[in-house]
Specification:
This protein is about 55% helix and about 10% strand. With about 250 residues, the protein is α+β, with helices and mostly antiparallel strands. The protein folds into two domains: about 150 residues, dinb family like domain (Four Helix Bundle (Hemerythrin (Met), subunit A)); about 90 residues, SCP2 sterol-binding domain (Nonspecific Lipid-transfer Protein, Chain A). A four-stranded mixed β-sheet has the order 4-3-5-6. Helix 1 packs antiparallel against helix 6 and helix 3 packs across helix 5.
Length: about 250
């Protein structure tokens, strides 16, 4: 199994462990996603895994239409996600857990058997199957933390963060373009993994900007789950401030 798909499988197992014995009060617990409780977060993950299945099987537009049926067009990815959750909000916790689990398993099976160099359609445009798998890993990791925090649990960082940190680095041009900005030159990430290992992502050309520090903190900043001012991350170079402000791991 490809390393990224294997990491996704591990992240799914971690979330499944949190969801396995939730009571009604925990499904209704508020998360750090504004306006969403645990049930909403799991519903969102189930829906976006279903979109990813559609992407990997050439049916992205069909699945997207099914999930937004009858709804007026919206102006942003975040608004679209909120709309999809609002349309199906109210499902029982056990039904949500089963729906997410079934879709997650199917997505894993599809990714494990497809050619990950295949170009597929996704929210932000075309990308490779491997990048699709990495985005699902990133989003599943983000929302595992959302669920854990809501129910008073902690999930320690693991080596699964490496492809997420690399995704954040590789998609910097997209993040800048989405904000109407241009990078002034190549950027390097010199990060430290959870076990103290060096995770260096370095461009072919000499970098003008370098970001250094904890990989876990970088991933949390890219997930919009912590402000960079609350981390030990440091930047040097002309784009350092914008990199730390714009870096992201989702569309």
């Amino acid at each position: 199994m490809d390393a990224v798909v294997e990491a996704l499988a591990g992240q799914q197992r971690e979330l499944a462990g949190l969801l396995g014995d939730l009571g009604d009060a925990e499904w209704s617990a508020c998360t750090r996603c504004e306006g969403w409780d645990v049930a909403d977060v799991v519903l969102h993950l189930a829906q976006t895994d279903e979109l990813a299945i559609g992407s990997a099987t050439g049916r992205f537009a069909v699945v997207a239409a099914e999930l937004t049926e009858g709804a007026a067009p919206v102006g942003s990815v975040d608004a679209g996600a909120a709309l999809m959750v609002a349309r199906e909000r109210g499902l029982a916790g056990e039904a949500l857990r089963a729906r997410w689990s079934s879709g997650a398993a199917r997505l894993l099976d599809i990714l494990a058997t497809m050619d990950l160099s295949t170009r597929v359609t996704w929210v932000a445009g075309e990308l490779s199957g491997r990048t699709l798998a990495t985005t699902r890993l990133a989003e599943t990791w983000i929302h595992t933390g959302d669920v854990a925090g809501a129910i008073g649990r902690t999930v320690p960082p693991t080596g699964r963060l490496r492809p997420i940190a690399r995704l954040a680095w590789r998609t910097l041009p997209y993040a800048f373009a989405s904000a109407g900005r241009s990078m002034r030159g190549p950027v390097a990430f010199l990060l430290v993994g959870p076990g103290g290992e060096a995770w260096h992502f370095v461009p072919d050309d000499p970098p003008l900007t370098t970001i250094s520090g904890s990989a876990a903190e970088l991933c949390a900043v890219a997930a919009r789950r912590v402000d960079v001012s609350a981390t030990s991350l440091r930047g040097d170079g002309p784009d350092s401030r914008d990199v730390l402000r714009l870096v992201r791991t989702y569309a």
